[in-house]
């Protein structure tokens, strides 16, 4: 099993360009997440999908959109990239457990390092 | 009320020593407290987790201590090894966060040989 995979690993964009970060998991998990990691700020949730067909905003959703394409895949789109979106982006997945549906161990992908010039 | 405050930001420990990382939370509706370990260039991975019905949980050299009244929890790494050098994140979740994980800011640990 590959676990959680992310593409691309690195990307450089110019301000105003758009791109989509891809994420796939092969663990048959219901819930998937997108985080960004910035120095000194930990991991901040951008969007999540508690189950196939649903998506919800996290702590820092502005400037991003997501698509839960199917149970395996969850993509993150930057419509008009800004320098403030320079970060490392992590996708994660987990089993749906407990009330609310987003508890349980989260399994993270290797990350995408994005630079916006 | 959603914050999880983590300290220190960085920590240097000699091989064989004890590493201690502390976290504090405000939201009393949190009831799940995991620690994640992240090596350079990798995604975080679950290390150990605790629920507030116990005050301590130990797995090998790693121990979580939990103080519900003080709303604090800490990670202790006994007999620290150079291979433990990584960034550690505490987190919390529960009804108060719609069960989403709220992460601390991270602690970069360096264990010197």
Helix and strand topology:
The complex is a heterodimer of chains A (117) and B (113).
Chain A: E1 4-7, E2 10-13, E3 19-25, E4 31-37, E5 43-49, E6 56-57, E7 64-68, E8 74-78, E9 87-94, E10 107-108, E11 112-116
Chain B: E1 4-7, E2 10-14, E3 19-25, E4 30-38, E5 45-50, E6 56-59, E7 62-67, E8 72-77, E9 86-94, E10 102-103, E11 107-112
Parallel strand pairs in B: 2-11
Antiparallel strand pairs in B: 1-3, 3-8, 4-5, 4-9, 6-7, 7-8, 9-10, 9-11
Structure, described:
The complex is a heterodimer of chains A (117) and B (113). By secondary structure, chain A is mainly β. Chain A has no helices and eleven strands. In chain A, strand 4 and strand 5 (43-49) form a beta hairpin. Chain A is globular, with a radius of gyration of 13 Å. In chain B, a hairpin with a 6-residue loop joins strand 4 and strand 5 (45-50). Chain B is globular. The mean pLDDT of chain B is 93. The interface between A and B is medium-sized, with 25 and 23 residues.
Count the E strands of chain A.
Answer: 11
Helix content of chain A: under 10%
Mean pLDDT of chain B: 93
Give the N-to-C terminal Cα separation of chain B: 40 Å
Helix content of chain B: under 10%
Overall mean pLDDT of chain A stands at 91
Beta strand count of chain B: 11
- Tell me the distance between the termini of chain A: 36 Å
Pair with the most extensive interface?
Answer: A-B, 25 and 23 residues
Q: Encode the helix/strand succession of chain A as letters.
A: EEEEEEEEEEE
**Helix/strand order of chain B, N-terminal first:** EEEEEEEEEEE
How much of the residues of chain B is beta strand, in percent? over 45%
How many separate helices of chain A? 0
């Amino acid at each position: 099993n590959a676990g959680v995979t992310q593409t691309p690993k690195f990307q450089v964009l110019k301000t105003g360009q758009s791109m989509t970060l891809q994420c796939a998991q092969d663990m048959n998990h219901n819930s998937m997440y997108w985080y960004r990691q910035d120095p000194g700020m930990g991991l901040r949730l951008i969007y999540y999908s508690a189950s196939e067909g649903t998506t919800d905003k996290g702590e820092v959703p502005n400037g991003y959109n997501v698509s839960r394409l199917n149970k395996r895949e969850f993509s993150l789109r930057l419509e008009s990239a800004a320098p403030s979106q320079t970060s490392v982006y992590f996708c994660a997945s987990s089993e749906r457990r407990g009330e609310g549906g987003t508890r349980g161990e989260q399994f993270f992908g290797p990350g995408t390092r994005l630079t916006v010039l | 009320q959603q914050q999880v405050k983590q300290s220190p930001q960085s920590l240097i420990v000699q091989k064989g020593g004890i590493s201690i990382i502390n976290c504090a939370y405000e939201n009393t509706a949190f009831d799940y407290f995991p620690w994640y370990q992240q090596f350079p260039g990798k995604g975080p991975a679950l290390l150990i987790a605790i629920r507030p019905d116990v005050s301590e949980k130990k797995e090998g050299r790693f121990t979580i201590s939990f103080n519900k009244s003080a709303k604090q929890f800490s990670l202790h790494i006994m007999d620290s090894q150079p291979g433990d050098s990584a960034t550690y994140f505490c987190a919390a979740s529960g009804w108060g966060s719609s069960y989403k994980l709220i992460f601390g800011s991270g602690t970069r640990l360096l264990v010197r040989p």
